[in-house]
Amino acid sequence: MDSSVKIYVSKVEGAEDIPLPRYMTEGAAGMDLAANVTENTYIEPGEFKVIPCGIKLEIPVGFEAQVRPRSGLAAKYGITVLNSPGTIDCDYRGEIKVILINHGKEKFEIKRGDRIAQLVISRVERAEIVQSGLGETSRGEGGFGHTGI
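The structure corresponding to this sequence follows.
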């Protein structure tokens, strides 16, 4: 796959065996992130934990990396990313970590190298905030549920 965006990756010490993020199919939008845990880790129902991924990224200016849940973990076990999508800014150089929460009914086990989340690279637009009066729309201030069920 030809890509014009290059993301530079380095592994943290002790994570040499953890796979780099990678697309699992030709059409995948997200690359899988693997768990860099030193021993099997358990997340109890209703509990959340920060799981390290063993890598650091250099993301180009004008881009971000979004950390998103893996649909299979959510559908089968109720495991999702707590702050979904989590944003990794282009100027962050620390280890990538994922905040997982267990919305399921059973304790969930994470083993070293398990694929725990997806990483999606997205363009970012920076906006200029201008304080001003706002234009009118037909919706106005109609908020949650304003159009009915």
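Residues 36 and 54 are 5 Å apart (CA to CA).
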